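Suppose a colleague, Dr. K., hands you the sequence of a protein chain of 170 amino acids and asks what its three-dimensional shape might be. Before reaching for any lab equipment, you can write down a predicted structure in token form. Begin with the sequence itself:
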Amino acid sequence: MSFETIWAGWRNDYVVSATESERTGEDDACVFCRIAASGDPSPDNGVVWRGRATLVVLNLYPYASGHLLAMPLRHLGDLEELDAAEAAELWDAVRASSVALRAAYAPDGINIGANLGRAAGAGIPAHLHLHALPRWSGDTNFMTSVAGARVIPESLPVAWQKLHAAWPDA
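The predicted structure, expressed as tokens, is then:
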């Protein structure tokens, strides 16, 4: 069996920036803080919804079309650092993400999850975030296991339009 390489050069910017911010430990290097400061929801910043203490943004490196990240606006790394209002709004944002994903994609299921800390798989452990993504029966394929690549069949601006339009109380 021959090994074939699939080029994913678009990930280099992410790998370099994530590595640099982890090395320096600079909070201003936090990509989620930059997104939080980027303004109102738009396809340009990927923010689908913004509340008083939280926001929901498209994952720039999704596992599936419509992969969302819900996070507090405040830079913190652990659930226990949330105050009661932040925790309530964050959970409401996750619930609304599920509603929007079902309306926009009609998936067979939805994954909701959090990776708390580098050892748990967090790509950006310094800024708490929860994942919400649609899933379909049989949506895994050989590309991930054999080629280490995912096939995402729609662009981020199209996903943003679908989810923003489907957001409850939008």
